[in-house]
Amino acid sequence: MSGAPILVVDDAPVNLKLMRLLLTHEGYEVRTAERAEDALQMLSNYRPELILADIQLPGMNGLEMARRVKEDPRTTTIRVVALTASVRQEDRDRAFRAGCEDYISKPIDTSALAARIRQLLDRPAAAPTATEPAPAGNACLSASPEIETLHRRFLEEGATESRRLLDSLSSAFDAARVAWHLHQWAGTGGLGGHPEISLLARKGEEALLAAPQEMSPLRAALTDLLLTFAELSGRASAPIPDYVAGAVAGKRVGLVGFAAERADAMCAVLERVKARPRLFHVSDDPARGAVADCDVVLVHVRAETRESPWLQPGVPIPAAVKLLFTGEQDDLTGLAPQVRARAADFIVGRAEPQEVLMRVAFALSRHDSAAPEPLAAAPLDAPPRPRTAVACPRIVLADDDNIVRSLVGTTLQNYGMSCKSADNGLAALSLIRSEQPHAAVLDVQMPVMDGFEVLAAVRAEKIPSRVILLTSLGQERDILRGFNLGADDYIKKPFNPFELVARLKRLLQ
């Protein structure tokens, strides 16, 4: 029953996102909730045909939620399927007694999930019949950039957290926290195509339940998890394009204000391309000799670094150093205008190390002819050097998503930019030809003509508009294809409107 509305209830954000991506790809309308209470509240004005609910939820558990759904005459016809990591028959019987039509065992067999959902939706709502649990051999979710990013993050964060849990066994042991992480890994490991992680997490759960005060079995399970996470994380590291590696190789890259774990991850990816990372303390003087030797410096802007000399208007930065700011939107917008003007680029939100590496590469490769010289080239103890700026930039926005066009168009107008939009590539090219805008923002995946084809036509006709690509592809080869065609910049979807405004201002000032 393609297009049927489905509600997924799970307290693991990674599980929710993976299930949403997989089921949306199959044509279903998917909504998610992290708590049973939130899911029940949604049902006041939303009627899914199927609810997939994890049994172990914070607060009200999934079985109690199923019971309430079935007892309410307004929602009793909604099918409820339990997601459970338990293999015990009594737990499955409890699910049926609560009103669940079926159960799906974790780790979930993603290769068979779509067929299982279709079978459940096509089956008349009747008395439940027990079915066999999903087979243990999992197929990984079909590769897509967003799923690959989630996959890498799950493995990296799993390695970090399993190390923390191991350390806590000999100091501040928190059994509830250990149990929560083991439960998440038991489910997400299988959904992400790593049944070995699910099996190890289940062993850890058994060790915790069997002898909560006996640490040796639990320590062994967590050690195995740490080694497995670390090994899989190494395998999942995305290949770095030659263009990026060549631009960064041998360059001195300064890192300021990064937390220890984040700094380690950044150093690792920089060393992979033979760059020379250098760590600076937030209180270090930016004028010291070691800073002047750097080709580019990344500053993590956050509450802990707010008082750093690097972020003070009156503190000079070496003229030859390209400066990149990374952080959350509120922290970046909170900087003094003179400080923001120093940046050759902004990286909004928590970007993956590989994404930061690409931004560093493009900042280093950007010639003065391709982008205006950053304000950091002027002594910062003097008034900022004026730039030739566009008073009211004309922007053409092309995206087939009505919400994106409305949101971005309103944001650009709020920042003093006029904006005309198109919902397909051919209409966008026509607008660019007639309007000759200062910049065009093109979605890569559009009907009639895609963003790459529009960009190629704009450059072939020598229209002098700057071009930013909006892409949900996220693969380095696609980003590099855009730059080879003449793109000035790119932003990955989902994106922050502030980031788009910041990049447009950098291109047009």
Kindly estimate the percentage of residues that lie in beta strands according to DSSP.
5-15%
The total of helices stands at: 20
Unreliable stretches (pLDDT < 50, length at least 5) are 126-143, 367-388
CATH architecture of the largest domain: 3-Layer(aba) Sandwich
Compute the CA-based radius of gyration. 26 Å
Strands in their spatial order, largest beta sheet: 2-1-3-4-5
Average pLDDT score: 79
What separation lies between the terminal Cα atoms? 52 Å
The count of domains is 4
Q: Could you say which overall geometry the principal axes of the C-alpha atoms support?
A: globular
Kindly name the structural category. alpha/beta
CATH topology of the largest domain: Rossmann fold
Q: What's the SSE blueprint?
A:
Layout (H helix, E strand, L loop, with lengths): L4 E5 L3 H13 L3 E5 L2 H7 L7 E5 L7 H10 L7 E6 L4 H9 L4 E4 L4 H13 L22 H24 L6 H17 L3 H16 L4 H22 L5 H7 L3 E5 L3 H13 L3 E5 L8 H4 L3 E6 L20 E6 L1 H5 L3 H4 L4 E4 L4 H13 L28 E5 L3 H13 L3 E5 L2 H11 L3 E5 L7 H10 L5 E6 L4 H10 L3 E4 L4 H12 L1
Parallel strand pairs: 1-2, 1-3, 3-4, 4-5, 6-7, 6-8, 8-9, 9-10, 11-12, 11-13, 13-14, 14-15
